[in-house]
Design brief:
Elements: H1 2-44, H2 49-241, H3 245-281, E1 294-300, E2 306-314, H4 316-329, H5 338-344, E3 346-351
Antiparallel strand pairs: 1-2, 1-3
Helix pairs in contact: 1-2, 2-3, 3-4, 3-5
GO molecular function, one term: toxin transmembrane transporter activity
Organism: Photobacterium aquae
Region (Disordered): 126-238
């Protein structure tokens, strides 16, 4: 469309230039013909000088008027030419602008077409990709549904198998638990029987040891009584002889004190042995205790209640077990002799695991 407008404008410009040239040529011929006509007229007419002068004046005036008219015409033609030139230049500028705009529009149209084709290609590609994606998603959904169905079947089969396995495991556990309880009951019974036997044997041994210690104490008592009788006899003899009364009395007093002290020592040792035996009966023995010992100090009340038990030396692990055994016994037997009781209220014992 813009190319056609440019062509029409060029044609119009050429026509205007052609008309201008034709007008100039026509004006030039007219000015040349007119003097010839006037000259012929003058030559053909014979008049008097006054008339000639008048006519010459008229001719001059006509020529001047014609010249002025020609100059006016030429000036108008020149103005028209300038105006036409300006119009031509303006038309050329307009045509150049139209051509530039046309080129820009064509470029923009080409770019728009390229962009449209690119967008269309992208849209077509996106549509194709979407179609493929939809097909892939459909296939994936179908495969997922198939896999889900298979998974559910496998899960159901696994659930049934697991339930059966758990049932078998439960039955096996019940059987094992029943077996374990039976074995535990048997073990406890054997342990209880063994412990009872050990306690019986320990009691028998303790009884034998206590009887032996009582026998020894009785022998010591008889020996002490014999010695006391001898001492009394000696005292009697000393008193009868009246040999250094005060020396004899001092000797007798020392002798009686020594016998009493020996009795208290023997009783203290005998009860200490009983206490040691009671602690060992309640001692939880470990394999690592073999060959080790503990010296334990006990503080007792007058009736034998344990007030305190502390470690006085030896292996710490054995002492810890010995203190636990003392706490388990909680009360030890006490003799009737106040002197022996006083000795037993703060006593040290050596515990040797056996």
């Amino acid at each position: 469309m813009k190319q056609n407008d440019y062509t029409v404008a060029v044609i119009i410009s050429l026509l205007l230039h052609g008309l201008l040239i034709a007008a100039l040529l026509w004006g030039a011929d007219f000015s040349m013909d007119k003097p010839k006509t006037a000259g012929n007229t003058i030559k053909a007419v014979v008049v008097d000088p006054a008339l000639v002068n008048q006519q010459a004046k008229q001719i001059r005036q006509q020529r001047e008027a014609a010249k002025k008219a020609e100059q006016d015409r030429l000036r108008r033609l020149e103005q028209q030419t300038q105006a036409l030139e300006k119009e031509r230049q303006a038309e050329e500028r307009r045509l150049r602008e139209l051509k530039s705009e046309k080129l820009k529009a064509e470029k923009a149209a080409r770019e728009a077409e390229v962009e449209r084709k690119r967008v269309a290609a992208e849209r077509a590609k996106a549509a194709e990709e979407k179609r493929k994606a939809d097909e892939a998603a459909k296939v994936a959904r179908e495969q997922a549904a198939k896999a889900e169905a298979e998974r559910k079947l496998k899960q159901e089969a696994a659930r049934k198998a697991e339930a059966e396995r758990q049932r078998q495991v439960a039955e096996q556990r019940k059987a094992e638990e029943a077996k374990r309880q039976a074995e535990e009951a048997k073990r406890k019974a054997e342990a209880e029987a063994k412990r009872a036997e050990e306690e019986r044997q320990a009691k028998i041994a303790a009884k034998k040891k206590a009887e032996e210690e009582a026998r020894k104490a009785e022998a010591a008592r008889k020996e002490a009584e014999r010695k006391a009788a001898e001492a009394r006899e000696q005292q009697r003899q000393q008193e009868a002889a009246l040999n250094d009364m005060f020396a004899g009395l001092e000797a007798e007093t020392e002798q009686r004190g020594g016998v009493r002290g020996q009795f208290v020592d023997d009783e203290t040792q005998r009860y200490g042995a009983i206490y040691t035996q009671m602690i060992q009966q309640n001692l939880l023995i470990e394999q690592s205790f073999v060959g080790k010992e503990c010296v334990i100090r006990m503080r007792l009340s007058s009736n034998g209640l344990v007030l305190d038990a502390s470690e006085a030396g030896g292996d710490r692990n054995v002492c810890r077990a010995a203190k636990a055994a003392v706490v388990k016994v909680s009360q030890f037997p006490m003799p009737e002799d106040p002197a022996v009781v006083e000795r037993l209220r703060d006593i040290r014992l050596t515990v040797i695991p056996q």
